Amino acid sequence: MQKKKGDIQQYAMMFGTFMGVFWIGKFALLPLGLTRPYLSFLFMCLTLCVPFVGYHYARLYRNKVCGGGITWGHAWIFTLLVYVYAALLTAVAHYVYFRYIDQGYMLQTCRDMWEHLQHTPGMEATGLGQIEEALDAMERLTPVDIMLNMFWTNIYSGFILSLLTALFVVKKPVSEQNHIN
Asked: Which domain covers residue 35, as residue numbers?
């Protein structure tokens, strides 16, 4: 049993690293997508691919490491660990981006878009004050605040996705299937 415990962590770290690199590459499209709609669309498409990538890694783990069978709990722990390790790696990239690279670019781009929308006919009656307050609140966030917010969002999303992914990955081991028949 000890070997299996080590295997789950080892493979979760490996697949979590792959998932984290995928998330970092996907994140690079976010600031670029603010001014280029096709990159924003690509970012959204890749975001929708995340559960399928997690499912692929869980199936790979089930088939190659677990001998073709895995319980729901084992699958859930594995996929949750994959998302946690991916979130940790991505958090480092988020911090580096917001601390050293962004320099207020994303916030200023959002403010510029908001200014443009305010002068669009028909936009006078919308909740202008709330959006202004939100932009002001975002301006007060430090890179650590932003990184922690994104980290916990990734953890929460990973928790939900791991619950669902485990349902689709569950498969009885081959030895148990033979005893039932």
From this structure: 2-105+142-168
